[in-house]
Amino acid sequence: MRLRDARKPILQLREREIQQVVIQFYRSLGVAVYCTSSNRRARIAKGMPDLYCLHPRRGGWWHEVKTPGGVWSEAQQEFAMYCQAAGVPYVRGGLDAAQTFFNALPLPPCS
Questions:
Q1: Are 61 and 33 spatial neighbours (Cβ–Cβ below 8 Å)?
Q2: pTM of the entire structure?
Q3: 7-49: per-residue pLDDT in tens?
Q4: Total domain count for the chain?
Q5: Contact 49, 89 (CB under 8 A)
Q6: At 94, phi and psi to the nearest 5?
Q7: Could you tell me if 36 and 49 are in contact, meaning their C-beta atoms sit under 8 angstroms apart?
Q8: 20 to 30 A from 72, CA-CA: which of 16, 37, 60, 66?
């Protein structure tokens, strides 16, 4: 599976391109990914992350896609804070963050 254009260094990828790489990664692992971001200004709640992800055995989490050095808005910080307070998993970053997070998720026993 090809996760990104090998000719383009990861530091030069735009957020939209990184998002596609993250989506491909999650889907390759059986994760259902719902995209909340849009190319045009949408009426989505401020601070809402780009992706909501659901795995049949590992649960659900939010993922805010960011480029290396990407700016995190105050609304995004607030959303992440509320997620943390409520015990809702929240990931921020690109492919490395997605891989680290997913690999750390506990795998519940089969029933």
A1: no
A2: 0.83
A3: 555 557 899 999 999 999 999 999 999 999 766 655 678 899 9
A4: 1
A5: no
A6: -110, -145
A7: yes
A8: 60
User: What burial letters (b/e) apply to 65-101, b meaning 16+ CB within 10 Å?
Assistant: bbbeeeeeeeebeebbeebeeeeebbbbbbbebbeeb
In a domain, 80, yes or no: yes
Beta 32-35 vs 90-92: how paired, if at all? unpaired
3-state secondary structure of 75: helix
What pLDDT, on a 0 to 100 scale, did the predictor assign at position 10? 53
Query: Looking up tokens 């750390």, which residue turns up?
Result: 104
Kindly state whether residue 109 falls inside one of the protein's structural domains: no
Range of the structural domain that residue 85 is part of: 10-103
CA 101 → CA 17, 35, 41, 64, 93, distances in Å? 20, 18, 29, 12, 10
57 is a domain residue: yes
Percent of the chain with pLDDT over 70: 82
Residue 62 one-letter amino acid: W
List, in order, residues 6 or more apart from 20 with CB less than 8 Å away.
Answer: none
Domain assignment present for 62:
yes
